[in-house]
Amino acid sequence: MAENEKETRSLALTPTWSVALVLTIFVAVSLLVERSIHRLSNAQAMKEQAQLREEMAYQYKVGNFEAAAAIQRRLDPDVAM
Fold first, then answer.
1. Cβ–Cβ < 8 Å for 36, 48
2. Is the pTM of this model over 0.90?
3. Does ATP-binding show up as a keyword for this record (predicted)?
4. Residue 1 lies in a domain
């Protein structure tokens, strides 16, 4: 019966290099996930900006300057018109 029991090793008996390796993998994966989320949000923001610029050009073309100015303020809130 003793043969079937799994041996568990405490953290104090685990080699330092294996603990360091596992933690390094955890940190690397978390950084990779964080950067991926950041890049996806930037891509989404750029896509939204492109759509707004297209809509602003259309509003200028049809002569709706108030709507175009509102879109421009949304695109560049720091620029005074």
1. no
2. no
3. no
4. no
